[in-house]
Amino acid sequence: MRQGWRWFGPNAPVTLDEVRQAGATNIVSSLHEVPIGRAWTEAEVAERKSLIETTPAGRPPLVWSVVESIPIPDAVKRLGGQAKDEIEAWIASLEAVAACDIPVICYNFMPVVDWTRTELDYVTPTGSTAMRFDHERFAAFDLFILERKGAEAEYSQQDIERAREVFEEMTDEEIAEITRNITSALPGSTTEPLTIPEFRDKLEAYRGIDAGRLRQHLIEFLAAVTPAAEARGVKLTLHPDDPPRSLFGLPRIASTADDYAALFDAVPSEANGMCFCTGSLGVRADNDLVEMARRFGSRIHFAHLRATKREGDGRSFHESAHLEGDVDMVAVLKELVAEDRKREAGKDIIFRPDHGQRILDDLNKTVTPGYPAIGRLRGLAELRGILHALDTKPS
């Protein structure tokens, strides 16, 4: 298994030398500055690859191994195979990546909103801070800030009453903060920042699109792009929904083992793979992560290893330290290592410590939400320790 690290580019707070100091060897990155829907050029990818892989004298080398992500335009999610221009542009980006010998592309198919949190600096008992999804605050936003049409039908009367209480206790600053967190696109998001009116319009555009239809649109997209990926030796890895359930009445179709099985059955190409995100999938108590790792092992080319802690209501959660949440990380890694050992050289599973709490000096710095250096360093060290205990030296 190869140690990855998500890097947000030359303006990121974490430098490539700091990635080296953390012990990672493989970079996970993207051309975040390219507008969603515009095809990447080979020259642009090559320039970023050169920046990553040109090694200063005496430094250990880094390799750009995973593109996370090439965003899928909204039109593809709403129209499927009819969004021909957008799909052709996505294939052109894939071809540019393949021409630069980057073997894995991660993507997601979440409509309107990407990964979603209500708080970015929830204070834990240790004094560290973590990202959190608070169901009551989310409901307050949905019902009384966004004022989504028809939202009341999706909540119990008790939920609505509690959400109203939470909303009435919010200050103007808190309302602005939760609005920004949900609508403005978190780091690495593959959706566009939206105002409240734009958000309502986007939701309206999905009216009538249920889970079956959205899944069909994803299948049509995969049917179009996997031949290009397969021909060029690129693996496509679908990231799970985060959180893995419906938000704002929108369908989510990458939340469970059955969801992934349906996609693999529909598009059996070996290029059609999975990003195994233990944090996202682990939010659902009914997801057996160890069994999923075993069942879909051959489809896992990229892994996000982190843990979330479900809270008392079963719908709220926060980002825990990597070995302290609801994920049995040792058991998961046993399955991933078993799969990795079956593979030929160069086909190893690439993993990265996903997210991380703000700890130590990062509490005094401006950091990329979810991606502080020291919290991820702790996570990578803990994961590496498990791998050594399993008699597998990560590379």
TrEMBL record:
<comment type="function">
    <text>Catalyzes the dehydration of D-mannonate.</text>
</comment>
<protein>
    <recommendedName>
        <fullName>Mannonate dehydratase</fullName>
        <ecNumber>4.2.1.8</ecNumber>
    </recommendedName>
</protein>
<keyword id="KW-0464">Manganese</keyword>
<dbReference type="InterPro" id="IPR036237">
    <property type="entry name" value="Xyl_isomerase-like_sf"/>
</dbReference>
<keyword id="KW-0408">Iron</keyword>
<comment type="similarity">
    <text>Belongs to the mannonate dehydratase family.</text>
</comment>
<comment type="pathway">
    <text>Carbohydrate metabolism; pentose and glucuronate interconversion.</text>
</comment>
<dbReference type="GO" id="GO:0008927">
    <property type="term" value="F:mannonate dehydratase activity"/>
</dbReference>
<keyword id="KW-0456">Lyase</keyword>
<dbReference type="Pfam" id="PF03786">
    <property type="entry name" value="UxuA"/>
</dbReference>
<dbReference type="InterPro" id="IPR004628">
    <property type="entry name" value="Man_deHydtase"/>
</dbReference>
